[in-house]
Design brief:
It is a single chain. The chain is of the alpha/beta class. It folds into 3 domains: 167 residues, FAD/NAD(P)-binding domain (3-Layer(bba) Sandwich); 122 residues, FAD/NAD(P)-binding domain; 94 residues, no CATH class. The chain is 24% helix and 22% strand. It contains 8 helices and 21 strands. The strands form 6 sheets. A 5-stranded parallel sheet has the order 5-2-1-9-17, covered by helices on one side. Helix 1 packs parallel to helix 6. The longest helix has 18 residues. The C terminus is likely disordered.
């Protein structure tokens, strides 16, 4: 009799966990995917839509589950009873499990009242009003602000670069600037990546002010302010959380203090919140579960490698920086660092997207910068191996 694995969450981590488990555990696992959303989307592609660089594709979760021999339940996780091995759903249903994977993601919150917060929801049209104001001369300066707190700043650089390209194509004169707590552009990727990005910003006429924590819109000079959401953990009764509201896990994704409960993705305590890392966390979890079910798998701990694909419209450059190396500059290359070169890099998700999107991608033209950075084990954090978060500051648990 197969064991019942419940995956709570239909985002990047949840789908990667589903694909990995089906491959590794085969028919040893009966899988149920629970998600409040009916479809799956690659959220990092949202920045492309306002500029017609690409578009967000959506995939029916029920269809994905059916083709992978899994059950789909459209509902939200409401509680976990680890002793009874059950989860309560918002609709009132209770599901039993042998193993539970929490792939809940994080809650998005607008950091400022008077700002355009891009990426907090599916609405990508909010940037259209800004572009219209620039075109008509109602606004002549824009500050792209990375807020202090837990966030992922790469999309803001995409928005700034593509806005600059749009402004240039319309022959407009507008002052654009990035304001960020980071010491250098995307500092976590290393100095070679930062130098390359700084060159792109200068070429596009975008100013850069690093090391600045913006407390309110009054702290910046731009007539308009564009920002990204802050990320917060999602509180679930029965699930432990750290000071930031995120789920504490060990190097195999086991939730601290709970038996046969795992977590992956933005909802975990690992301080870097990014889709490719969510896939790697999900893979580590799937290997542990599959091995426990008797599959011939040797579980490997989560050893993160950060890969980023920056949509710019300015050509392609690929970068790698092994964290902890004596050389902190990394390496720049003209060659792709992973294949398929999808926006989110996952062992299973990338291959699935390559198959699902082959027709659509052939018609799309997408210029980008790819960067890859191996990160230290999250369980060396307490020993000082990772001194900075994505904004160049101590991880949230240390602040």
């Amino acid at each position: 009799m197969s064991s019942h694995v419940v995956i709570a969450g239909g985002g990047i981590a949840g789908l990667e966990a589903l694909l990995a488990l089906r491959d590794l555990a085969e028919d040893r696992a009966r899988i149920t995917l629970v998600s409040p959303e009916a479809d799956f989307e690659i959220k990092p592609m949202r920045t492309a839509e306002p500029f017609s660089v690409d578009h967000v594709r959506r995939y029916d979760l029920a269809d994905i589950c059916r083709k992978r021999g899994a059950e789909f339940v459209q509902d939200a996780l409401a509680s976990v009873d680890a002793e009874a091995r059950t989860v309560g759903l918002a609709g009132g249903e209770t599901l039993s499990y042998d193993a539970l994977v929490l792939a809940l993601g994080a809650r998005s919150r607008a950091p400022f009242e008077r700002a355009l917060t891009f990426g907090a929801d599916r609405d990508t049209s909010i940037l259209s009003g800004l572009l219209s104001d620039l075109e008509q001369g109602y606004s002549r300066s824009v500050a792209f602000v990375v807020p202090p707190g837990v966030s992922w700043p790469l999309p803001l650089y995409e928005l700034a670069l593509m806005t600059a390209r749009e402004v240039s194509s319309m022959g407009l004169d507008a002052a654009l600037e990035i304001v960020t707590p980071e010491p250098e552009p995307l500092a976590l990727f290393g100095s070679h990546a930062s130098d390359a990005l700084m060159g792109l910003l200068r070429e596009a006429g975008i100013g850069f002010r690093g090391g600045v924590s913006v407390g309110s819109p009054d702290d910046v000079e731009g007539e308009r302010l564009v920002t990204i959401p802050l990320l917060e953990g999602i509180e679930i009764p029965g699930v432990p959380e750290d000071d930031g509201g995120f789920i504490p896990v060990d190097e195999h994704g086991r939730v601290v203090g709970l038996h046969d409960v795992y977590a992956a993705g933005d909802g975990t305590s690992y301080p870097v919140k990014q889709g490719g890392l969510a896939c790697q966390e999900a893979d580590a979890v799937a290997e542990v579960i599959a091995a426990g079910l008797g599959a011939p798998v040797e579980p490997k701990p989560f050893r993160p490698v950060l890969r980023g694909k920056l949509l710019t419209g300015q050509g392609a450059q690929f970068m790698r920086r092994p964290m902890g190396d004596e050389d902190p500059k990394g390496v720049a290359s003209d060659f792709e660092l992973w294949f398929p070169p999808t926006k989110v890099s996952g062992r299973y998700l990338s291959q699935w997207l390559e198959f699902a999107d082959s027709a659509g991608r052939a018609a799309a033209s997408e210029e980008h910068v790819d960067v890859e950075v191996p990160l230290p084990s999250p369980y060396e954090l307490g020993r000082g191996s990772l001194a900075l978060d994505p904004l160049g500051r101590p991880p949230v648990a240390w602040r």
